[in-house]
Amino acid sequence: MARQIAGLCFLQGTFDDLTFYKMEGRYYVRVKSSLTGKRVKTSPEFKWTMIYARLLARASKIGAHIYKALPPGWRQFWMYRSFTGEAFTLLKQNPYTDEQVKQLLWQTYVQYWEQRKAQDPDNPIWQPKPLKTRKRRKYSLETIIRRKEQDGTSLWIHLEEAERKRLALEKKTMEAAKQLKKQQAQSFKPYIRPAKLQAFSTYYPSIPNRPSESAGFDTLYVPSDSNPLTKNQQSQITNDRILVDSG
User: If 70 and its partner were Cys, which of 75, 160, 219, 221 is the partner (CB 3.0–4.6 Å)?
Assistant: First the structure.
């Protein structure tokens, strides 16, 4: 059994053929055991281990039955462990069945309380215990700062530096969110037709296939073979485009 030397961290668990564990505040390492659950359940070497495990399972159920029959305001949890141990001893040393052991313990521990309940059913001892509420412990700043790592080094050596990094990261995140919101606002703009183009479209309302004002095309009319422009319309559009471009 070897001890782990203080380093960056201490290991716990099994890695390959080595098992790292903690015992009495110190960390150790040993060779991995060849014992498995399947071997314990099937190997003849652990025959009595499994026999006692089955007896303990039976005794645990008997102890729970006796414990629940006691007055809720009087019973304590250590009694359950005591009942389980006594039932295990009876099952181990005597050829009793589970029901026989249950009757023996019932006559010893529960029968008296049944008589008491018949005489005084309104006794508060039969009422369930109130739920315990545990207040959360509050730690002071000095206590938090004095905390240490497993190797003995302070947990908050660079407390001010960590706070400064946190504030800088928070500021950077907010700036990035604002920049993204600004880019999204700039990328979405409603189409507004220029004044000159608006005047041009209203000057020739009779030109066919004119797109809607919200379409956003600079060309108001696209001629095709099935719908050509007349020579008069072509000359008017050319002259007006020259005037629009020249201002």
Answer: 75
Q: Which domain holds residue 59?
A: 46-126
pLDDT score recorded for residue 131: 76
3-state helix, strand, coil in the chain (%, to 5): 55, 10, 40
Which of 62, 110, 49, 59 is closest to 89 using CA atoms?
59
The structural domain count of the chain equals 3
CA angle 7, 8, 11 (to 5 degrees): 85
Place of tokens 């903690």: 22
Spatial separation of the C-alpha atoms in residues 131 and 99, rounded to whole Å:
33
- If asked whether residues 189 and 238 sit together in one domain, one would say yes
State the pLDDT at residue 204. 47
Residue 189 has pLDDT above 60, yes or no: no
Asked whether residue 51 falls in the same domain as residue 117, the answer is yes
